[in-house]
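R.M. (postdoc): so does anyone remember the format we settled on? I'll just put the structure tokens first.
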């Protein structure tokens, strides 16, 4: 994960350096502004007590101009630092999210990662890293604040400067020692509780029709309330720990000012300048200290992300370097042997629960393949091939397809990049859905609802087939493609798929109970494979 972060930050390194420089400028200008304002007010007050001649001799024009200039510099630099630093952080995190999402999908068993868990990692855990990136300028700002504060205190009293140095070192040590003791456990509990709560909400929202139908809402509400209460308890513990650390910082500021007042032997205006400079130096340290305390949340997020992002880089390079597979498919188990070359077809029959869907999902790289699965691609066992290489050659239309909450065009274009409307309509025509879409008020821009809820079962099935066709992969995998269709539509679909397979030269593996679709495998060098048990071919 550290390497992934470093790679994401790399293109934004210059922006982070600029943000750091602006933070330094804002901190220096702020401390000088505070100290000069105290000096000016004290000096003006003493001049007023000195009588008319003292007032006339007091030069207030130059300090006034400097105060205004420093105020402008501080405001401008602070704005520039926030703008540059936040933009760089958001751009880096966008890269991190894309890389983590890619690694979530690169696991061998995609079904093992729930949607809720994936979303919490991509949103909550990566969002926690924003605090680390946004606070990157805090360290140079704290160092600059300490430096300018020590210089100004040295002008009043070298001993006061040394006292401030010792106090700053003590506060930094306090922050680093107190954070793991006061915040680490609470931060871990917050990350875990928030992840469970968000994952539960997402998963429950997905099953909302069943929850309403079976009157499960009260029980689920109580479960979510218990999770929320646990999250609140963890947050209160974290807030108490942060308050204790912040109290130490506030106390340090008061001690610094008192120490300067007690040690300084300079004139009163210079002493006031030094006191306020000491307070400004401690204030500049607060941003860094807040980053240290918030680091407990970042550490907890990194630990969760490491589960999905910490894959071996060598393995990922091997996956990217792996050439195309799938020119031949061989199934060889329990006495049954089928071998398909590119462009050939296979029908899979069998009773419900016999393993037809599992076989197709294993071929598609969605379900993890074990060493005994009996599937060989290009004379290499499927279990030994990288998932990315396997998924590159199979387009699956599953039995229960999932859809984006968007339009028909949105759901078709996820098949691959660069698809124009002409290709979308062609695929819809092959899937016998073009007429339905043209009859919709908005055509390709028709919103289909969450998970395709506004479409019928047969329309969802055909939309899934059209999407698989658009993927343009060497092999097409169809799982019960005519489910929910009447016999006339089923016959048209089988005929058009046959023409499409001939035109494109794509291979086909179709699992179905319906003879009309299994008949597709009767073309060319096809075969019918019957499965009697879970994943067991018999003939």
């Amino acid at each position: 994960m550290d390497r992934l972060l470093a790679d994401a930050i790399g293109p934004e390194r210059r922006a982070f350096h600029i943000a750091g420089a602006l933070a330094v400028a804002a901190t220096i200008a702020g401390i000088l502004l505070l100290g000069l304002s105290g000096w000016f007010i004290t000096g003006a007050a003493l001049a007023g007590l000195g009588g008319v001649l003292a007032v006339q001799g007091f030069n207030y024009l130059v300090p006034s101009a400097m105060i205004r200039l420093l105020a402008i510099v501080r405001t401008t630099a602070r704005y520039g630092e926030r703008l540059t630093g936040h933009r760089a952080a958001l751009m880096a995190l966008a890269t991190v999210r894309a890389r983590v999402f890619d690694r979530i999908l690169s696991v061998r068993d995609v079904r093992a990662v729930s949607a809720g868990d994936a979303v919490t990692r991509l949103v909550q855990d990566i969002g926690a890293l924003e605090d680390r990136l946004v606070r990157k300028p805090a360290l140079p700002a704290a160092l600059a604040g300490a430096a300018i504060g020590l210089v100004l205190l040295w002008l009043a009293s070298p001993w006061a400067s040394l006292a401030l140095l010792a106090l700053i070192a003590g506060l930094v040590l306090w922050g680093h020692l107190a954070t793991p003791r006061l915040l680490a456990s609470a931060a871990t509990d917050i990350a875990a509780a928030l992840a469970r709560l968000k994952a539960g909400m997402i998963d429950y929202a997905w099953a909302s029709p069943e929850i309403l139908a079976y009157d499960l809402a009260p029980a689920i509400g109580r479960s979510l309330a218990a999770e929320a209460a646990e999250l609140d308890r963890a947050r209160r513990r974290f807030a108490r720990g942060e308050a204790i650390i912040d109290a130490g910082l506030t106390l340090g500021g008061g001690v610094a000012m008192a120490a300067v007042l007690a040690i300084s032997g300079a004139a009163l205006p210079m002493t006031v300048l030094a006191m306020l400079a000491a307070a400004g130096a401690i204030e500049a340290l607060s941003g860094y200290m807040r980053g240290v305390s918030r680091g407990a949340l970042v550490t907890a997020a990194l630990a969760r992300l490491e589960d999905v992002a910490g894959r071996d880089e060598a393995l990922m390079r091997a996956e990217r370097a792996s050439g195309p597979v799938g020119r031949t498919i061989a199934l060889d188990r329990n006495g049954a042997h089928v071998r398909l070359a590119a462009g050939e077809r296979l029908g899979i029959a069998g009773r419900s629960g016999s393993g037809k869907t599992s076989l197709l999902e294993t071929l598609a790289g969605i379900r993890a393949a074990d060493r005994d699965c009996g599937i060989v691609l290009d004379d290499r066992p499927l279990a030994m091939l990288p998932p990315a290489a396997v998924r590159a050659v199979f387009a699956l239309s599953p039995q229960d397809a999932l859809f984006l909450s968007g339009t028909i065009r949105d759901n078709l274009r996820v098949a691959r990049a660069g698809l124009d409307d002409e290709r979308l309509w062609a695929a819809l025509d092959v899937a016998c859905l073009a007429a339905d879409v043209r009859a919709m008020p908005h055509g390709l821009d028709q919103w289909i609802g969450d998970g395709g809820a506004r479409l019928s079962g047969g329309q969802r099935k055909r939309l899934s087939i059209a999407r698989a066709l658009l993927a343009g992969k060497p092999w097409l995998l169809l799982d019960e493609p005519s489910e929910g269709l009447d016999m006339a539509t089923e016959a048209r679909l089988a005929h058009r798929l046959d023409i499409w397979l001939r035109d494109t030269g794509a291979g086909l593996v179709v699992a179905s109970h319906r003879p009309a679709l299994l008949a597709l495998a009767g073309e060319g060098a096809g075969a019918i494979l019957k499965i009697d048990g879970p994943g067991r071919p018999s003939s």
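R.M.: ...and that's the designed sequence above, right after the tokens. Also worth knowing: The chain has 20 helices and ten strands. Strands lie at 328-333, 336-341, 345-350, 375-377, 380-381, 394-397, 475-479, 507-511, 527-533, 536-537.
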